[in-house]
Amino acid sequence: xxxxxxxxxxxxxxxxxxxxxxxxxxxxxxxxxxxxxxxxxxxxxxxxxxxxxxxxxxxxxxxxxxxxxxxxxxxxxxxxxxxxxxxxxxxxxxxxxxxxxxxxxxxxxxxxxxxxxxxxxxxxxxxxxxxxxxxxxxxxxxxxxxxxxxxxxxxxxxxxxxxxxxxxxxxxxxxxxxxxxxxxxxxxxxxxxxxxxxxxxxxxxxxxxxxxxxxxxxxxxxxxxxxxxxxxxxxxxxxxxxxxxxxx
Length: 248
What we know:
By secondary structure, the chain is an all-alpha fold.
């Protein structure tokens, strides 16, 4: 392996190991028990997180692995989605419903959930109008924002990761630790990275924005028992953000 390739791979791996290290104390101190099966599930969680995260970034670091020439990371997203599909096919311990991968909603929460995601879209629209300076608006951008982010990230963070952590972390009345952990990982994926010299770069606004949304979407998922509302909110929010900004 060429030195430059090795360095890039190490950087990707270390960045994601850093994310896991940051959430480790929360996970460790909120475990339901210290049984062998619990640690097996946590190991599966870590392996899935690392594989998906690495596959997502590979086309960005190695252009030869990109099978789309667009300006968005279609290749990485498709690889990440495929990693989730393979996970579900290979790891049979839990059913898709345990990962909230169902269209069936908790009927007691449906109206409240729709109201919440409508409110989120309204808030995101106002924030986009006030603060978003991006003018990117073309067919590729809209198609990407309407599909890839929500499909990949909701299946991963609010689906598989949340589902696994709910099995091993003990709940509390205020905020389930699985919600906080997945939201922090989601926030760090957007706001905490390593440079080519392995220095930490922290984007405060991106981290806070995505962490807060991650908490809301995970809470909605737990209440509705499905990722559907979170997925719709995610993709429409991203798209609305782009639409609003062109009218500024």
